[in-house]
Amino acid sequence: MSGMDTWRAVAAATGETDRPAAERGVRLAYRRAGLEEPERIIWAGSPLAGAELARSLDDAGRSVRDEVRTRPWAEERRRLHDALGPAGWAEHWSATGAQLWDTGRALAERIRTGVVEALIGEPAKPAEAAGIRAVLLDAVLGQHDAAWLAAFDGRSERLEGLAEVARHAGWWWPYERAVVICERPAELHRDEAGRLDRGDGPALAYPDGFALYAWRGMPVPAGFLSELASLTPERIRDEANAELRRVMLEYYGYDRYLSESGARPVHRDETGVLWRIALDGDEDIAMVEVVNSTPEPDGTYRTYWLRVPPTTRTAKQGVAWTFGLEAAEYEPIRQT
Hints:
With 336 residues, the protein is α+β, with helices and mostly antiparallel strands. It has twelve helices and twelve strands.
């Protein structure tokens, strides 16, 4: 397995944590930072439980995240940048950390948001939310730091402890005398774009029950997914949350929704039929119905539905838009 494949696997790792290996990594990270090893290492089942524990510690001393993580990373990055030069560093980053950066950052931010939402409840108290976010800023992200750790793999002794924790555990909070460290997720489900995605359960779940639900990256309530199998056009229209309504439409199928909602064609031409249906509090749904000019093996002609911008006024304009063209520029020799 290549170095990047290894770190890609670290970022997506689920299941039982190797606690002894992670604890060795923590102690090594402290020594590399010139600190005394922590007196206690306390395990938590998720970032939610970890944040709660970190907030409750009253004898752990101050956060040493800067010494353990921020400062070594910045100095090692500067050293490697100077050694490789600007162009060399850019090439190296592109081949390593950049490949994991966007999905890793998005996942970490989604976890932070989920922790804040779980702890502040409703209605939110601004002061309490700010306190929770401050605690989350003290966290080292463990396996979710894989992107930048990949760039230094085998190139920095100073970061070996951080890398060892990342290979074997999740988020952790380093303080002078104590460390709170989290288990890895029990489940992680993502789509081809790396977004959290699952239609029949939590997309991200931890051993203690903390879980996040999502459909193609869109956060959804836990009970929302159970409704999808029994959707009707009426239920979709009645949904007040426009973002959840879009999830419903994606699951149900725009073409099915149009055909079962009494939508009427608004324009026909040689390219197809433009359909539109209005939604309260949201943009119209506009789609072009086109028929493939090449017959199937059984002699039938397949119908396709193309989602187009709600401002589309003609079928030809909509089909042209799918090719990145204006209607006047779209003159297919043969439509397929």
